[in-house]
Specification:
Helix content of chain A: over 70%
Largest sheet of chain A: 2 strands, antiparallel
Order of helices and strands of chain B: EEEHEEEHHHEHEHEEH
Number of domains of chain A: 2
CATH class of the largest domain in chain A: Mainly Alpha
Helix content of chain B: 25-40%
Strand order of the largest sheet of chain A: 1-2
Strand order of the largest sheet of chain B: 6-7-8-3-9-10
Number of helices of chain B: 7
Oligomer: heterodimer
Shape of chain B: globular
Structural class of chain B: alpha/beta
Radius of gyration of chain A: 24 Å
Largest sheet of chain B: 6 strands, mixed
Radius of gyration of chain B: 18 Å
Largest interface: A-B, 26 and 26 residues
Number of helices of chain A: 19
Strand content of chain A: under 5%
Strand content of chain B: 25-35%
Distance between the termini of chain A: 59 Å
Order of helices and strands of chain A: HHHHHHEEHHHHHHHHHHHEEHH
Distance between the termini of chain B: 34 Å
Number of strands of chain A: 4
Chain lengths: 500, 255
């Protein structure tokens, strides 16, 4: 009974966060892709938000929400949902943006030539065309959501620890008691819930989403029951009318250019002022002596993250090769990966750390980072492998390009853009996991290793120190992203592109 | 009277600091009742000319006039048949046609009536509920034609409409289109078609405009006044073919 209600609360949190992410991700992605002026600031912002370890910001978000709701449970619930949301949304927003950006040109021209306005275009063409991407990315997003759920249900504020009812809290309880049966049942429940969502929801939806792909051939897939149900039971006409009203309201607002632009300046000024005050507050002495430890800890964590990401790529390869050899297994691999990915490895972590002991905690930490990054490389590389034109694979078979030559000249270059996307997201995932991998609290005993995550946890009691650590980490990650990943990706996307 | 007029149209791109012109000062007049075919080598910017003429792409220099008025944006009296059909995969044949009628603000009942009428006209009756993916290339292009005709435009642009089809299907569809065009049943007053198939150009056109390779210029025009249906083996046809061929080759040599 206890587990049932715990599962109920966890599922509610995940799905609320997921629906908000879906809505936000679609709106953000479409808005960014449709207007170059917006694109210029929305995409770099998305890049930063996507790559920054959200868990690092969690203490800050919790403090704000708890303060706003005066410590009531709703504030904590919102903080938890917010954390899960931030783990799910960027993936969806990015997928949406990329899909709209790479939209078939002739379809866009067709829409223009038949006089479709942008409102009509978004509702009738973009949104349906997004369905395959959204469904595919939702699997990843939900799995990641479960990972963060565990971290979000137990909230530490300074010395106070607050627990929300849910499977994460239940698991921690069993771990503390050393109740193995309880732990197993909890994990079983999580796996079961995920298996059900994958099997009954996403599998049929993925099959159906083929209808929305440009250039697909063969008979049309059948409509799953859930789609028919949604179609018949929700008054889409009404929703669409409301949407139109909001949009036309926006249009009338835009006509008052003067008010709007002056309002914008007021907003800019306010933001600038706020930022200046923030900087002043941050830079004002005294400095905490622990700030000098930041670089050394950053490097320690970076090293572990690199190892974990490298391992993720290596471990993903066998699955990808299997998927290419027999494309009918892709759906199974996907379901398996989505289910496995949702098993929150975080909850086993204390057990593992305890059993390997203090000396090998570094190894255990890399293992945990791996569980936070492997799914990203796997999902992205699978997607990339599926997008290799079948003629290329047939050509390779026909000319007997096999073995090492095949991997070196065809498979790896062909998947390079998606491999890099996977690596970048895995890199983000591993950083995120670092926030929980470097310190384990067993009540009286604390196991801890050097790293930015443990430094961050020890700083939660002092807001200023916390901000310094979070900022240093953010800047470091953004720096590496812009000067390393981005360049590599742009190079690969240009060179290894199948379109002519 | 000129329905459509392109005056000194130039289109250029700036890439990596370099200036590339695709189209160089093209003049083109399309008279009412005329079927004009633009031919040119691949990559000569023929499709861009059509997109500029339809108001989808704005020229770098020059001006497009429709019925004597400068064209500010996509021409509401024009529609386009695309080389790769540009059908929406998740909509059925009928829904694909209804979609563009809806975009033009036509009420639901009339949408259905018009869609069915044009599905019938292109010979797709009983395929109303099929998805594009279930159709052959020729049938897909029939949907493309039905959709373009359904909005009852004054001018029809066709961007290599038969290039993605096999030879027999292309010949069939070409013939059917010419029948419709000469029957006077359509709302269309003029047609502009782009192709790289010179035989097709002579089969269909009243006038052929020959473009050079990039940056394209008009290198010549040929009036084709043979009676329809035209016989590709007739003497007159072959002499026009030779003339056209010579024109294209000379434009290559002069480069």
């Amino acid at each position: 009974m206890y587990l049932l209600s715990a599962a109920f609360w966890s599922v509610i949190r995940i799905f609320i966060a997921y629906f908000v992410s879906l809505l936000f991700g679609i709106v953000y992605g479409v808005l960014a892709a449709m207007n170059p002026r917006r694109e210029r600031w929305m995409i770099p912002l998305l890049d930063v938000l996507q790559s920054v370890p959200i868990l690092g910001f969690f203490p800050i978000a919790v403090s704000i929400l708890v303060f706003l709701f005066r410590g009531q449970r709703i504030g904590l619930e919102l903080a938890a949902i917010f954390l899960i949301f931030t783990s799910q949304v960027w993936n969806i927003a990015f997928g949406v943006y990329e899909t709209v950006k790479t939209f078939p040109r002739d379809i866009a021209e067709m829409a223009l030539s038949f006089g479709m306005n942008s409102n009509f275009l978004v509702k009738r063409i973009y949104v349906p065309a997004l369905i395959p991407t959204i469904i595919y990315n939702s699997g990843v997003s939900l799995a990641v959501g479960w990972y963060f759920l565990m971290a979000s249900e137990i909230i530490t504020l300074g010395n106070v620890e607050i627990r929300l009812p849910g499977l994460g809290t239940a698991m921690m309880g069993y771990v503390a008691q050393g109740n193995l049966a309880g732990m197993l049942i909890t994990v079983g429940t999580i796996v079961f819930i995920n298996w059900c969502t994958q099997w009954f929801l996403f599998r049929p939806l993925i099959e159906w989403s083929d209808l929305f792909k440009f250039g697909a051939v063969g008979s049309a897939p059948e409509e799953p029951g859930i789609v028919a149900f949604l179609r018949n039971n929700i008054r889409w006409e009404k929703i669409s009318q409301h949407l139109d009203r909001i949009l036309s309201w926006g249009e009338t607002l835009r006509k008052h250019q003067k008010i709007l632009s002056s309002l914008r300046y007021v907003l800019y000024a306010a933001l600038l002022g706020l930022f200046a005050y923030f900087l002043y507050w941050l830079l004002k002495p005294p400095y905490s002596p622990r700030l000098v430890e930041i670089p050394e800890n950053l490097i320690a964590t970076t090293f572990r993250v690199i190892v974990a990401v490298g391992l993720s790529i290596l471990l993903s390869f066998p699955f990808v090769i299997k998927a290419i050899r027999a494309s009918n297994t892709v759906k199974n691999i996907y379901t398996l990966a989505a289910t496995m990915g949702s098993v929150p490895a975080v909850i086993f972590y204390p057990l593992i750390v305890r059993s390997v002991g203090r000396e090998y905690m570094g190894v255990a930490a890399v293992l945990l980072l791996l569980t936070g990054s492997l799914w990203y490389t796997l999902f992205n590389m699978l997607k990339g492998a599926l997008m290799i034109p079948s003629t290329i694979i047939e050509m390779a078979n026909n000319f007997g390009v096999r073995g090492f030559l095949y991997y070196r000249t065809i498979l790896i270059p062909a998947m390079l853009p998606s491999l890099i996307t996977g690596t970048i997201t895995a890199w983000g995932g591993a950083w995120n996991a670092s926030m929980v991998a470097e310190e384990v609290n067993f009540g009286k005993e604390i196991f801890s290793i050097h790293g930015i995550g443990s430094l961050l946890l020890s700083a939660t009691a002092q807001p200023k120190e916390l901000l310094w650590v979070v900022l240093a980490m953010t800047l470091w990650i953004v720096f590496i992203n812009t000067f390393f990943w981005k360049r590599w990706y742009n190079h690969a996307a240009e060179k290894y592109n199948f379109s002519e | 009277m000129a329905l459509l007029e392109l005056k000194e149209i130039t289109k250029a791109y700036i890439e990596k600091g370099k200036y590339f012109s695709v189209i160089d000062e093209i003049d083109l007049v399309v008279k009412e009742g005329e079927l004009v075919v633009i031919v040119g080598p691949s990559g000569s910017g023929k499709s861009t000319v059509v997109r500029i003429a339809a108001g989808l792409v704005s020229p770098t220099k020059g001006q497009v006039f429709y019925k004597g008025q400068p064209l500010p944006g996509p021409n509401p009296n024009a529609s386009i048949v695309f080389q790769n059909f540009a059908l929406i995969p998740w909509l059925t044949v009928q829904e694909n046609i209804e979609l563009v009628l809806e975009a033009r603000g036509i009420p639901p009942r009339q949408r259905i009536r018009t869609a069915l009428k044009y599905i019938d006209l292109v010979g797709l009756d009983s395929f109303e509920d099929a998805y594009p993916r279930e159709l052959s290339g020729g049938m897909k292009q029939r949907v493309g034609f039905a959709r373009a005709l359904a909005v009852e435009p004054e001018i029809l642009f066709m961007d290599e409409p038969f290039s993605s089809l096999d030879v027999l299907t292309a010949a069939d569809l070409r013939e059917e289109f010419l029948k419709l065009w000469t029957s006077g049943k359509l709302s269309i007053r003029s047609v502009v078609m782009v192709t790289h198939n010179i035989e097709e150009a002579i089969l269909m056109s009243d006038r052929i405009v020959v473009l050079s390779a990039r940056p394209s210029k008009v290198v010549g025009e040929i009036e084709v006044s043979l009676p329809r249906p035209r016989d590709t083996h007739s003497k007159e046809f072959e002499s026009i073919l030779d003339h056209l061929y010579a024109l294209i080759v000379s434009s290559h040599i002069s480069k």
